[in-house]
Write a structure and sequence with these properties.
three-stranded antiparallel β-sheet; 49% helix; elongated; 3 strands; 134 residues; alpha+beta
């Protein structure tokens, strides 16, 4: 191999490393923390479904960006992400599954380290039935 060829290969390799670094996704912990911060911003302390929060992404740039960074492109994937993160403290935020309704899981996110904030207590949400409306 000639010196010119070696120099060319080194230059190509350096360029590939630069491109790879630019295109690499955010580290999972960073993406998870950004996702939870955006969900806290959108949902506050109230209970919510993944579909409800996912639909807010259409009108909230912070939420849409967090979804994109986290690879969340539908409500089901958001629910799976919340399920994976449930019980973990990430970026000062704790996600908890607090119940179940006809549409699936009901979630809540809490900022930890704030006086008076405790993790959500799991409950079962009971949807009204026809008999209940009589």
């Amino acid at each position: 191999m000639t010196a010119e060829t070696e120099d060319l290969l080194r230059a190509i390799l350096a360029e590939l490393r630069t491109l790879n670094a630019r295109l690499a996704p955010a580290p999972p912990a960073e993406a998870d923390a950004a996702l939870l911060r955006a969900v806290v911003s959108a949902a506050g302390r109230r209970a919510f479904s993944s579909r409800e929060v996912f639909e807010l992404g259409a009108s909230r740039a912070d939420l849409a960006a967090a979804f994109e960074t986290s690879g969340v492109d539908d409500a089901r994937k958001l629910g799976k992400a919340l399920q994976r993160l449930a019980g973990q403290r990430i970026g000062g935020v704790l996600v908890s599954r607090v119940g179940q309704d006809g549409a699936g899981s009901v979630w809540r996110v809490d900022r930890m380290g704030v006086v008076g904030v405790t993790p959500a207590t799991p409950t079962k949400v009971i949807a009204p039935t026809r008999a209940g409306r009589e």
